[in-house]
Each structure stands twice: as structure tokens, then as C-alpha cells.
Design brief:
Layout: H1 2-23, H2 26-36, E1 37-43, E2 48-53, H3 57-60, H4 63-66
Antiparallel strand pairs: 1-2
Amino acid sequence: MKDILWIIGIRNGMKNFLQLFAQLPDREKVELINLLVQQVLFDGLNQKVTIKLRPLPQVWGDRDALEGVFYGSKKRGG
């Protein structure tokens, strides 16, 4: 049950983020993405995109605790 509530919280947070993001001017969107994303890699052979987030503990919290939660993350067997 705790996992379901956590997932619902993540979905609501993403929905709120996307609504806010949609209202930003293009320049601020670029600045925000540059703040949050460190690197984006595309593996054309396997048609796979890897996104590396910047280490922002004040934003993400404990990233080690988050690893493995998302589909395709390293601890889930990617």
C-alpha cells in the first residue's frame, strides 16, 4: 500500500511539474532542463535513451534511495 501511495505521489508531482513547465517561456524551459539534466545519451543501435540527472541533493533527496525505483534503472537490471 505504501508503494502505491508513493507512486501516486510521484504521478501527481509530475503532473504539477508538467503544468508549470508548459507555462514557462522557452528560455526558462531550457534553463530548467539544463539545471536538472547532466547528460542525455542516445544509443542508436539499441534505440535507447539514457538520461543522467545532475547531483542536486536539495532537489532529488537521497538519489541512492531512488535508484532501482524507476523502470530501466541500474538496480532493476536496466
